[in-house]
Structures are given as structure tokens and as C-alpha cells.
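Regression check, coenzyme A case 260:
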Amino acid sequence: MAYNTIIVEQNQFIAEIIINRPNKLNALNKETIKELSKALKNLDKDKNVRTIVLTGSGEKAFVAGADISEFANFSEKKGASLAKNGQEILFSFIEKMETPVIAAINGFALGGGLELAMACHFRVASTNAKMGLPEVSLGVIPGYGGTQRLPQLIGKGRALELIMTATMIDAPKALAYGLVNYVVTQEELLPLCKKIANKIANNSPVAISQAIKAVNAGFNTTLDGYKTEIEAFGKCFGTADFKEGTTAFLEKRKADFSGE
Ligand code: COA
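Current build output:
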């Protein structure tokens, strides 16, 4: 499928999405949000895709935020619907996807850019990456889940300090905070993400999707995470992947989850 603002590549079980507006530091305009949503929906349905790596084009930015030029003159109502629509079609959607999404943060991840990375299942950063939620410097707050996911990932005090000061942290600090899992050079960033993606791809896709569901439930105040885990655990027993995984272990061979 052809897109204007993103590039989608697929190699065996791993898909890569590159946000491709380098002249605007990959800022998320309406079209980019729509195209990302569409591409991710399609990849999530594709049984040949086991892991997705999301990154930005160029050497400077992952995503430098929502496109400020698009919402500068919005009313209260339009502002609220911008956040609601974005959360529904992209940010919350990614978090709930059955296919794992890894954010490869190759530079600035600011505002909506950091929110996008935080909606992914985990993050890897390059040494030049800078992360922050600078919205209050623009007279607004994070609207794509940032006020919720940042405290979940780094704790309330650190999150509030970052949000209130509107400052950026560098990659080593993000690593120390647990916001990213690894920090490597720009050259090493995609190879490391793909290495992790390949490890994921060797495991049962059905079990992985149930694990995502159970972990997410623990952060959803309307759900009981332990109850969700019991249901998800039970569901696994009815799958071909479970039969293959346990049989392979007992037969002392490597499990094959290709479903063939
Ligand atoms: N929305 C729209 N355009 C953006 C953007 C954003 N969030 N971030 C960067 N751009 C555009 C700039 O307007 C500029 O476009 P131009 O060349 O047509 O003028 C281009 O990207 C390059 O950015 P520039 O500011 O010249 O790069 P820099 O290296 O001097 O600064 C940043 C980099 C990231 C510090 C700076 O771009 C910035 O502060 N961006 C906004 C970050 C932000 O507040 N994000 C949260 C939004 S809710």
C-alpha cells in the first residue's frame, strides 16, 4: 500500500514503519496519524507479521510532536476532539494491539512523539535521543495519553516534574528512569530492535497477544488484571500454539509456531 507520510517495509516476520516527514522533524499531522493508524491496523491483522518496529526518518528526530501548525487556532471543542480521535485511532490502539510494537527512538521524541513511543510496548533509544513533554510551554497539556503513561512508566513525581518543567531528558537519564530499555548508537539502534523483534517472533504469537492483554488490564482501573490473567491463561490452553509449545518441550525440540 502507498502512503505519503510513512514508509512500511516487511522482511520475514518483522515489519518496520518509518515516519517520513524529516523536514518537519516527523511531526504528527492529521495525515500521518491516519496513515499510521491504517498501516498498524493492517499489520496487526497480518499473520505473517510477528513484531513491528516504529521509527523516524533522518538522524535528528523520532517525532518532534504533534504538528503545532495544525491546531494553533483550535477551539476547546476541536481541541478535545483532536485528543479523543487521536487516542482512539492511534495511541490507545497501539497499546492494545495483538502484535508487539517496539519504538526505536532515533532522536527527538517530544510531546506527541514521546506519547507515541510510550503507547508502544517498549522503547529503545539512540544516544542522541532527547525526550520530553513540553506541552505546558505552549499553554496546553499532553493529550495523547502522556499524563497517564509517563507516570506509569517512570513514577508520578518524575513525570510531574518533566511535565511541569517542560524540559527534555537525554537518553542515559531516560534509561535510568526506565523510560527506555536500552541506549545504543544510532547505527546500532535498528539492528538491536530487529534482534529483539526476531526473539519475539520465535515465540507463540497467540500467547504474546494474551500477555499484552493481561499486562494492559493491570493498568486499566475498570478491569481486574488478575482476573484478566486467569482468563487469558485459560484461553492459551485451547490453542494450537500451546499444543505445539508443550509437545516440543516434551520431545526436546524447538517449538515451531509457524502454524503449518
Ligand atoms: N510541529 C510542527 N512543526 C515542527 C514541529 C512540530 N511539533 N517540530 C519541528 N517542526 C518543524 C519546524 O517548524 C521547522 O520547520 P521549518 O523548517 O519549515 O521552519 C522544522 O520542523 C525543523 O525544526 P527546527 O525548530 O528548525 O529545528 P531545531 O533543530 O532548531 O529545533 C526542536 C528542534 C525539536 C527543539 C524544535 O523543532 C521544537 O521545539 N519543536 C517543537 C517541539 C514541541 O513543542 N513539541 C510538542 C508539540 S505538542
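Comparison notes: The two ends are 27 Å apart (CA to CA). Strands lie at 6-11, 14-19, 51-56, 61-63, 101-105, 108-110, 122-126, 130-132, 169-170, 182-184. No diff flagged against the previous build.
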